[in-house]
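@channel anyone free to eyeball this complex?
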Amino acid sequence: MSLIVENVTKRFGGNTALADVSFEVEAGALTALIGPNGAGKTTMFNCIAGLHRPTEGKVSLDGRDITGLAPAKILDAGIARTFQLVRSFRELTVLETVMVAGHWRSGQSFWNSILASPGTRRSDERLEEEARGTLHALGLESLADKRVHELPYGQQRLIEIAKALMTGAKTLLLDEPAAGLHPEEALALRGLLAALRERGTTILLVEHNMPFVLSIADHVVVLEFGHKIADGSAAEIAKDQRVIDSYLGKEEDVA
Amino acid sequence: MSTTTLRTQRELPRTRLHGRRRPGFWVEIAASALVILLPSFVASPYLMRLFQDVAIWSILALSLTLVLGFTGQISLGQAAFYAVGAYTSVILQTALGVPALLAWVVAIVLGMALAYLISVPLLRIHGHFLALGTLALGLIVETLLVQLAPITGGHDGIRIPGVEYLGEWMQLRFPYIVLGTLVAAYWLVRNLTQHSMGRAFFALRDDPAGAAALGIPVARYKTLVFMIGGGLAATAGVLYAHHTQVVTPDSFGFDTSIEVLLIVIIGGMSSRLGAVVGAVVIVFFPEWLVFLEKAENLVFGLVVLAILLFLPGGVVGGVRTFFSGLARRRETHHPEVAS
Amino acid sequence: MSTFLQLAVSGVALGSIYGLIALGFLVIYHATGLVNFAQGQLLMVGAMATYLLLMQVGLGYPLTIAGVIVVALLLALLFRYGLHRPMVSRGAPTTNMVVATIAFGLVLTAAAELFIGNTKYGVDPVFPGAPLVVGSVSIQTQSLLIVVVAWALVGAIWFFFTKTLTGVSLRAVGLNRTAAAVSGVRVSRLITIAFVISVTVTVIGGMLVAPLIGAGPEMGLAIAVKGFAAAVIGGMSSVYRGMVAGVAIGLIEMLSSYYISSAYAPVIAYAILFLALVLMPARVRQSGAHA
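replying in thread with the prediction:
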């Protein structure tokens, strides 16, 4: 189930957000896409997730070309994504929110709902069990009946991950999962990601937070101004001069 | 939050009544039976007329509950489908001699077809712009009803005397038909929204991008719901025509679209019960508060403003919050009493 | 030919009113992202106030104008502090905002009906007397006044938004409220200013148009729809475009009313609005600021 990005270029009008970027996200491993602001990480992420169509280049999953597919088709292919800006479903509880993530594979449709076929009720019971299981696995089961918008930010981000897990996708795209988390929350997230990797889930995350990334990633890809400037293991990247310059250079400008 | 590993799935305690119906179900069944049998024990014809008014408004309101409350599409033009239902049914019967039941079916199908046609361009606009677009649509239909006088009878409309077109048997039992249709419409909306579909609707209403990323076909659902809404509104129109035995453009204008909106806001926007409650309020309050006769619109407008500010969930939302507040207070005072 | 010119004159005058509605509409929209469905009723209040003060109470125009402006200010403050701000502070979603403005308009119409009854009343023009005659065309003084005042207002608003500090700050608020607030801009006060401008401009429009078409409680909706159409066609952006679009709509309305059919003229206007909305380019659709 490896995700391969080949020579992806993305232009918005006159602005080249991504220039000829290629890398591989190995199956069952955790890959991090990092880089300073404006590097093109989010654009790359959105190109894989189906929000943007690459101007040039190809994205494939397990040999199957998924370039430019709509988000729903991306999910069919087995990739789920989280969003950084959590916009909750106002009238749904946490449990129901997670259950929604299973809707697409639940088999419920207009027809069988209106006709109230017994299958609908059974499907719902199954969804509820699975959702409770997912919440339980993340230690969130006590929050089942709360509303997402009532919860602290760290827990909201975890619920995003719960939704992604509930979709049943084998590959997760996580958009800055550590953003805005306390150190203890970030630690817990690290543990969660490690456990997911052990389960065989393929993970690609976009992150700002270098120490976090270096502590958990198997493989790191570094972008700067739309170009890939480094690609290797966490240890290699930590020592890579170009990467250090890219980050340190930024600090100097600010100083 | 202390997860450092993924907890293994244990056998989870059953917290819901798996395999058995929840108590609310039987309440709804009983209420439905009561409503259908209403004409049998309501003696006053005047009261019965009011109940039918409530039923017809409820069906119309349910269309907006689905379209607006569940999928967030602000439609200010439901009266257009209401009109299509009523006028199509009446014209088919009076001008073309089509038998009533067939005319009804054609009218409802036409309402749904029109809704589908309109929904395609409408998918591209959202929020207030969608409201404006549906407003324009409603106004177009309203004007055409007057202008296409050779077909629609213009300002005077078309009369459709009951016995002549329904036959004595049906005319006598028409109240049962109206209330029966309300129950059917209610159960349609209930079934459609009570399980995963309902949750998916809420999801696509509040966060379309998030819903799409979870595999929910946002455009398809919005279109289908809009179609069903058109069908429900047309159904209400069909019933209305026989109920009042005349159709005139006055009943199908912007004012009507607004009135449906008021009903849904007062009752509770995303609640099927709210549609009925709101209809009861709209029909009965002017009866109870006769002195308000002239100021009806003013009062309703102010009530709606008050609701939007202080009780956004409408009557039903307010009642629910009240009861869940009670439950929470009971829990904190008696934590050992499990729910 | 003279009929054509005659119709054109009426079309331009009426269209300038639509442009004024578009102006009022756009000012609030750009400052707050709110689509004000009560815009037409605000115009109606201007017309009704003019009728009451001028025709019933018998004040002359100067005092009437002053009185109407006062009404506009009060209405703006009521709208802003009684409705808009409380709803924004409760985090009301778009739907609720739309319904709130609709309900507000409904209350205004209902109040007017209660007060005056559901008829139209005549209002004297500012400059009484015979219409001006230019060639074979007779131009009512009021029509001329409308065009002059409307375009002057548009120019004044444009000047305000581009050349004054307050106006520029207001644009900043519309574009990025958080950044504006952080830069020391008094956001809430500016939004109130936007409401005052919008309501006042619209109310003045009502005062101007009343002598032309009369004042009645139900006059708001039809005019507002065309004003909205003008704003949308103008790309929801520049006030000049809205004005030009408004005049265009006025012309189309007048000409089609005579040459095609007066009955179907409204349908054409509504269809224009519908098409303009559906064909609106995506970036305009999403460009609304947040309430």
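from a first look: Residues 2-32 of chain C form the longest helix (31 residues).
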